[in-house]
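Researcher: Please translate sequence to structure tokens.
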Amino acid sequence: MTDPILVTGGTGTLGRRLVPRLRDAGRDVRILTRHGRPDEDGVRYLTGDLATGEGIEAAVDGAGTILHLAGSNKGDDELTRNLLRAVSARGGRPHLVYISVVGADRVPQASAIDRTMFGYFGSKLATERVVVESGLPWTTLRATQFHDLILTVVQALAKLPVALVPTGSFQPVETDEVAARLVELALGEPAGLVPDMGGPRVYSSVELMRSYLRAAGRSRPVLPVRMPGRAAAAVRAGAVVAPDHAVGRRTWEQFLADRLGAGRQVPAPVRPGR
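Model: Translation complete:
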């Protein structure tokens, strides 16, 4: 195929790793952005807004594949509907590739506290349904939590004298590895809901925090906090991990060593009984 590939969210954490891989594969890339910027070799930046629909029709026109990475904590389903309305208006049938999250279908949204704390999962599930009902050929990948996201969270929690850590199980995965998998899917045939993608190991939130503190050379008491609600209970029970799909290779400790320790090795947390 020689049709260009449109990437929404192409300037974000995942998009910045994904776009160069598409270019390395010889594909012309369009990036939808709310803020205009100069084009680069093989990459066009098209100004548009998924929230208002402005500029979207021009961006999707002629695209053979749309990699839909743009997202937020709520309202993603409506943004995706706006994208699909533009596709329909232009009469195209691109391959729609969507990035979702492991646990989208397993984290309840039963109460206000569930939706406040874990509404991201509900938003992702609603968007998955919009993709399925679009009538377009589609592929959806669910991934576990990116290393970059986990680092942002633990850094914020560690700012207090005592690190208050909501309890749960997590399986961080390397962002670049997810980008590589998405490119593989985008260059292939539509495949529907593909197998989940998780990092190489499941950790407790306390393990993640202690590993971070050790790598950063910081000392803080770590206090586990049991959060209320059915969604939090699901996270504690393993709803957002995929141990049977631990296909990622780069570990949390390796990520921390490279990001915080100038490449020095960070010992893995010791599990009880080992």
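Researcher: Any highlights?
Model: The two ends are 52 Å apart (CA to CA).
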